[in-house]
Structure formats: structure tokens, C-alpha cells
From TrEMBL:
PROSITE patterns: LIPASE_GDSL_SER (PS01098). This is Acyl-CoA thioesterase-1. It comes from Acidiphilium rubrum. The lineage of its organism: Bacteria, Pseudomonadati, Pseudomonadota, Alphaproteobacteria, Acetobacterales. GO terms for molecular function: phosphatidylcholine lysophospholipase activity. InterPro entries: Ester_Hydrolysis_Enzymes, Lipase_GDSL_AS, SGNH_hydro, SGNH_hydro_sf.
Length: 227
């Protein structure tokens, strides 16, 4: 009887021990899931002066206004600033690896091409650079919102058509959300642009952010499903 009692006792200890380990594992799993649910989505803004806030106080720039709008919608997002005034698509493609090496990125807004258009640069080169950027982001499983640009009318209809076609083609890629024109609704409206007639003022940025916010929220939702 003592033998049977001791054996039963040992078996009970094993069972309770197993249950204890199982409870710990479940608690850790739930804790990790809870932590992941609260972890912010890190959104890379890869762009030029339009997203760098050229000519504006920091608080009025695109990134500051976007951050405020996301916060107001309860979106837990950290912006990674990869916007440099004056950048062409060649410049941005050349520094992307450095940007990604320095920060964890879950999603990306790509706003480029304006300086290529202003300088009348090759649309073939622009497409090559943007393709390289999208390929690099796709290889890291980073969903993208590609916001396009339109070439200045002074460069002619043929150049403008080729320029627009680059963004239209890339906008159909898998894993890419597409916005055809970053400055939509702003050109030709003095109350929404700075004295140079190109860069949005604070009011213009507010319009940009309001228009793009639904797409950016969708982008963030896609990023959450991949991480």
C-alpha cells in the first residue's frame, strides 16, 4: 500500500508539475501576443522635400501633421524619417539600404519623382530606381504606399505621358498601394502652396494628410498582418 501511495503521489506531482509548466507557457504566449498587439508600427517616409517639410516649421510639416492625425485615430505608429529635400529617385535608391539598416521598418510610404521631373531626367532611369526601391522593400516583406508625381507641363506632353506611365505601372505591383499624385488638389491654388508655387504650405499639408490618411491606415493594417 505504501508503494502504491508513493507511486500515486509521484504521478500526481508529475501531473501538477506539467500543468504548472503549461500554465507558464500559456502566460508567456499571452504576454507576447499582448506585447505584439501594443508594439507600434514603424512607418518609413522615403521621400524628398514634400515629405521632409521644406519651408515649414517642423510642427507644420507633412510628417508632424501625419503623426498627429494617426494619433487622433488611435493608430500606434512611429514614423521613420527617410525624406531628404532635393533627392531624386537615384539618390533615394542609393541610400535605402543605409536607411533600412539603421531602423526596423514595418511599412513604407514612397514619395519620389518630383525632382526627376523638375530636372527632366530620364523616365527609364526613374523607373529603374523606383523598381529597385520596391524590390528592396518587398524582399523585406514591407508593404508600400507609392504616391506618384506628375511632370511639369513645360517638359511637353510626351515626357509627361511617359512620366505618368512609370507610376501607373509600378502602382499595380503586388504588395503596393497606389496613390497617383501626391500633390492632388494643390497645384494652382495660391492659398495652399508656398511662394515658390510648388511646396504646400501648412494648409496644403493638412489637405494632403486628410486625403492620404485612409490609404495610410490601410497600409498600417496590412503591416500588422505581416508582423
Amino acid at each position: 500500500m505504501k508503494y502504491l501511495y508513493g507511486r500515486a503521489r509521484r504521478n500526481g506531482q508529475i501531473v501538477f508539475g506539467f500543468i504548472g509548466v503549461l500554465c507558464v507557457c500559456i502566460a508567456l504566449a499571452l504576454g507576447m501576443a499582448h506585447a505584439n498587439a501594443k508594439a507600434p508600427v514603424r512607418l518609413l517616409i522615403l521621400g524628398d522635400s514634400l515629405t521632409a517639410g521644406y519651408g515649414l516649421p517642423v510642427a507644420d510639416g507633412f510628417q508632424a501633421q501625419l503623426q498627429a492625425a494617426l494619433r487622433a485615430h488611435g493608430a500606434n505608429v512611429v514614423l521613420v524619417n527617410g525624406a531628404v529635400s532635393g533627392d531624386t529617385t537615384t539618390d533615394a535608391a542609393a541610400r535605402l539600404d543605409w536607411v533600412l539598416a539603421g531602423s526596423t521598418v514595418d511599412a513604407a510610404l514612397v514619395e519620389l519623382g518630383g525632382n526627376d521631373g523638375l530636372r527632366g531626367l530620364s523616365t527609364v532611369t526613374m523607373q529603374h530606381n523606383l523598381t529597385r526601391i520596391l524590390n528592396d522593400l518587398a524582399a523585406r516583406h514591407i508593404p508600400v504606399l507609392l504616391s506618384g508625381m506628375i511632370a511639369p507641363p513645360s517638359l511637353g506632353a510626351a515626357y509627361g505621358a511617359r512620366f505618368k506611365a512609370v507610376f501607373a505601372a509600378l502602382g499595380h505591383r503586388k504588395g503596393v498601394l497606389f496613390d497617383p499624385f501626391f500633390l492632388q488638389g494643390l497645384p494652382g491654388k495660391p492659398g495652399l502652396v508656398q511662394a515658390d508655387g510648388l511646396h504646400p504650405n501648412a494648409a496644403g499639408v493638412r489637405i494632403e494628410v486628410k486625403r492620404l490618411l485612409p490609404l495610410i491606415l490601410r497600409l498600417i493594417a496590412e503591416a500588422k498582418t505581416q508582423h
